[in-house]
Sequence to fold (496 residues):
Amino acid sequence: MAVLEEPIKGVPMIKNYIDGEWVESKGEIIDVVNPAKNETIAKVGISTKEEIDAAVEAAQEAYPDWRRTPAVARCRYLFRLGQLLEENFEELSRVQTQEHGKTIDESRGETRRGIENVEVACGIPTLMMGDTSEDIVSGIDEYLMRVPLGVFGIIGPFNFPFMIPLWSAPYAVATGNCIIIKPSPEVPISQAKIAELADEAGFPPGVWNVVNGEKSVVNGILDHPDIVGLTFVGSTPTARDVIYPRCGATGKRVIAQCGASNMMVIMPDCNIQGTVPALMTSFFGNAGQRCLAGQNLIVVSEDDGFYNEFMDAVTATAKGIIVGNGLDESVQMGPVKDVQKKEKILSYIESGLKEGAALRLDGRKPNILGGYPDTCFLGPTILENVTPDMKIVTEEIFGPTIGVIRTKNLDEAIKICNENPYHNADAIFTSSGKHARQFQYEVNCGNIGINLGIVAPMAFYPFSGMSGSFYGILHTQGKEAVRFFTESKVCIHRWL
Ligand code: NAD
Fold:
C-alpha cells in the first residue's frame, strides 16, 4: 500500500501561542523527530520564564470577560472548534503519526476521541448547573452555583499528542477558565495545530494559550502564583516527585494521571478467536506506549493443552504483525518514540531474561516494512515463565511486550492484579458471567475490561485510574472534569 503524504514539510519552527499571537521562543531550540525515519521534522523552543509569565498574564487578563461570557456563548466557540477539527480530521491524524510514529488508524482513533471531548464540553450549560433548595428554614433558600476559578495549566505526555490535552482543555474553557497548554516537547505539533484552529474559531486572545518546553516550563507553571491548578498526565515519578509536592506546596488543585502496568487475565473458558485480536491491540497498539496497554498476561490454567493452544494462537498472530512507518496504511505497528525509549524497553527484556523469564517471541530485531532505519523500531516480544515479583511486572515497560504469568485459579490472578501498584486498567477474557462479575467486583483498578483489551472510557465518562499508587479524587473527561474546573459557591438567601 502507498505511504500517505506527510503534512509537515520543511522543518518549521513550532511557536508559542500567547494572547492570540504566534511567538517564537527565545529559549533553547530542540528537534522534533519522526521516529519512523529518524528525521527531524520541526524545531521547538524551551520557553523562558518571561514567556511563561506573558502567557499567564494574558490568560489572567482574558479571564474576567471570559468568565462573564454566558456559558451558551462560550459553547459557540467550542462548536466552531469542533467543526474545524472535523474539517481537518485527516491532516491532524497524519500530523500525529508523523510526530509520534503511531499508525494512521491509531491516529484517526485519537483524533476522533479528542473531538468527542470538545463535543461533550458543548453541553456545559447543563453540565455546570447548580442546585437549589427552597425553604431550608421558612423564608430562606439555599443554592449552589458552579463557578470557574481562573487560569489552569494542562501538561501533556508524549504518547497521545492530540487527544490528552483535550481531556481537559474543552471543559476548562467551557466552564469559563483560561488555559495554558504545555505539550510534551517530543510531540508539540498537534497542539500547535489545535491552537491554530482555536484561533480560527475566534476564541478571545488569552483564553487558549500554548507554551512549549520541558520540565523547566512545568516548574514555571507549578510555581506561578496566578495559576490556580493543573491537570497532568505523565509518568508516576514525575507526578510523585514533582507535581503533587509542588502543587501541595503552592496550594494548587491538581489531577495527576500516571503510569501503568496492566494485567490481562485469560480464563480457559474464553473465546480464543475473539480474545487473540483484542490482545494484539492491547499489547501492541501504539507500540505498547499506552497507559491502558496490557503488559502482562495471566493465563489461569494448569492444563498445558489449553495453555499451548492459546499461546500458539497469540504467538502466531503477534509474529504476523507488520512493523513500519505508520503512514503506510498496511502497517500494524509503528516505532517507539525515540532511541532512549527503545533502549529502556530492551533493558527490561534483558532484566526479565536475567530474572528467569524465557523468550517465546523475540522482537528485538524486527523486519521493517519499507526498509526504514531500525533506530526506533521493535517487534512484538513475548516472555514466558514470568513471576509477579519480576521488574517486568512491577515496573512500567511502555513497549510492545507480553509477560506471561500462569496461575492455578482466578483468586490467585486477582491477587496478582491487586498487589501491582501500577494496574491502571485490567481485563478478563471469559465466557462465564460469574467469573466476569467476580473480577469486576474484586479488582481494585479504575478501568476494567471484560472481553476487551483496551478500556478507553468515552469522553462522557471519567478517564479513571488509581494508577501509580495515587488515588486521585477526580479525573479528566466528562462530568469529573467539569467538577475539577469549577468551584461550588453556596449562597443562603433570606427573603426580606
Ligand atoms: P513524563 O512524566 O516524562 O512527562 C510528562 C510531562 O511532564 C511532559 O510534558 C514533560 O515535559 C513533563 N516532565 C517530564 N519530567 C518532568 C520533571 N522532572 N519535572 C517537571 N515536568 C516534567 O511522561 P511521558 O513519558 O511524556 O508520558 C508517558 C507516561 O504517561 C507513562 O508513564 C504513561 O503511563 C503515562 N500516561 C498516563 C495516562 C493516564 O491517564 N493514567 C495516560 C497517558 C499516559
Residues 155-159, 164, 182, 184-185, 214-215, 218-219, 233-235, 238, 242, 257-260, 291, 396, 398, 424, 463, 465, 467 surround nicotinamide-adenine-dinucleotide (CB under 6 Å). Residues 384 and 404 are 5 Å apart (CA to CA). The mean pLDDT is 96. The longest strand covers residues 140-147.
